[in-house]
TrEMBL record:
It comes from the Bacteria. One of its GO terms (molecular function) is hydrolase activity, acting on ester bonds. The lineage of its organism: Bacteria, Pseudomonadati, Pseudomonadota, Betaproteobacteria, Burkholderiales. CDD domains: XynE_like. Residues 206-399 form the SGNH hydrolase-type esterase domain. This is SGNH/GDSL hydrolase family protein. Residues 1-23 form the signal peptide. Pfam families: Lipase_GDSL_2. Keywords: Hydrolase, Signal. PANTHER family: GDSL-LIKE LIPASE/ACYLHYDROLASE, PUTATIVE (AFU_ORTHOLOGUE AFUA_2G00820)-RELATED, GDSL-LIKE LIPASE_ACYLHYDROLASE, PUTATIVE (AFU_ORTHOLOGUE AFUA_2G00820)-RELATED. Coiled coil: none annotated. It comes from Pseudoduganella guangdongensis. SUPFAM superfamilies: SGNH hydrolase.
Length: 412
């Protein structure tokens, strides 16, 4: 087993071994994959207002690596009308005890401009990145971005289930150190990336679903597994391209994997590694309230989907790591989404996992299933690693996933 693990992990570890690089380059230090909104036709609510108007949105994020200059990106990828940003500012987050700090920032922050202008109109299907500002940012530092939306702004592009509380308040308050009378948001609105300029570092992207997005982790504490990997992988940029409800083969709560692979993975500056852990929703959704009329998933179709991602990554000289799918017996039992798990669905998961482990088609493999399953009952998560819904890990489960993933950055 030890020799097998070394065979799997060594190529990627060699690639990620960090020799100091002195060139100054732009790197994405934080990312939230944009998603299209939906209406009442889907089984889950967006949990966000349909539109914002005349409001300030304040969002907090945590960097992966630091730098001397910063720029911020907003996405209107799925919008049908222009997204007008009247003003935006960036500040260090004001830490305060154990409560969400999204509505507090250190002072008034720094103004962000767009080609020298305070405001910008982002066309449908496009994004806008601010001019660079000189603001020293540390690795794993919390930052606050405040955005003034003066016009009626449909929330057509957002990020669901951010595990980070944001806030809105009427009027332009981007420079206010704290917000009075603010309303909480449980997702992200338009904010999609923060980049820093500093010593060039290698970039690893985690492409996944709600397990990568951190569902089940403690909100506002940055305990998703990519966050915890960033705590351990010194000198490696770790970006989270997880989308709750994401699927390998079909559109769900976001586009299918191959459709978003360019935007969310290959377009990241300096990307050299992607960890793919996708497919449990392809298996679980059919026949449940998520996709009641959809036929069951097959391992052969999923393997074809993985091969498409492998080919796309190799074409761009990006190494691709396969993550096995976690056990999910009892997933969502007692909810309107019962039926997500069945013995037949679990057989598909086993077949897919065996291919991921043994085919040799990925450049390396992280056996998340082996790390988190209950040895006494391998079809389910170890209770200590279960958030309670039998699908998403707990904080401790995500920590174990990060430890497993960290092996690929620490082997020499």
């Amino acid at each position: 087993m030890e020799n097998t693990m070394k065979r799997l992990l060594f190529p990627l570890a060699a690639l990620l071994a960090a020799a100091t690089v002195h060139a100054q380059e732009w790197r994405t230090t934080w990312y939230a994959a944009p998603m299209p909104s939906w209406g009442a036709e889907f089984a889950l609510p967006t949990m966000l207002p349909a539109a914002l108007e005349g409001q300030t949105v304040r969002e907090t994020l945590r960097t992966s690596v630091g730098g001397e200059q910063v720029r911020v990106t907003w996405s209107n990828r799925y919008g049908k009308t222009p997204l007008v940003i009247g003003e935006a500012r960036l500040a260090a987050t004001q830490e305060h005890g154990t409560q969400p700090a999204s509505f507090r920032q250190s002072g008034s922050g720094v103004a962000l401009t767009f080609a020298g202008q305070r405001s910008v109109s982002i066309a449908p299907g496009r994004s806008a990145t601010s001019d660079a500002v000189r603001l020293p940012v540390a690795a794993r530092q919390r930052l606050t971005v405040s955005t003034w939306l003066p016009q009626h702004t449909p929330l057509a592009t957002f990020h669901w289930g951010a595990q980070q509380t944001a806030f809105t308040v009427g009027g332009n308050h981007v420079a206010a150190a704290s917000l009075s009378g603010a309303q909480a948001l449980t997702g992200r609105a338009f904010l999609s990336a923060v980049q820093v300029r500093g010593p060039a570092q290698r970039t690893l992207v985690a492409l996944g679903d709600s397990i990568t997005d951190g569902n089940g982790s403690t909100p506002d504490r940055n305990r998703r597994w990519p966050d915890q990997l960033a705590d351990q992988a010194e000198g490696v940029v770790v970006l989270n391209a997880g989308i709750s409800g994401a699927r390998l083969l079909s559109n769900g709560m976001g586009e299918k994997a191959i459709a978003r692979f360019e935007h969310d993975v290959l377009a990241q500056p300096g990307v050299d590694t992607v960890i793919v852990m996708l497919g449990i929703n392809d298996i679980g959704w059919p026949g449940s309230a998520f996709a009641p009329q959809e036929p069951p998933a097959t391992a052969s179709a999923m393997i074809a989907g993985y091969r498409a991602l492998i080919a796309a990554a190799r074409a761009r000289q990006v190494r691709i790591v396969g993550g096995t799918l976690l056990p999910f017996e009892g997933a969502l039992h007692g909810t309107p989404f019962a039926g997500y798990h069945s013995a037949a669905k679990d057989r598909v998961r086993h077949e897919v996992n065996q291919w991921i482990r043994n085919s040799g088609e990925f450049d390396a493999v992280i056996d998340f299933d082996q790390h988190l399953r209950d040895p006494a009952h391998p079809a389910r998560l170890l209770p200590a690693y279960d958030s309670g819904d039998h699908l998403h890990p707990s904080d401790a489960g995500y920590a174990e996933m990060a430890r497993a993933a960290a092996l690929i950055t620490k082997q020499t």
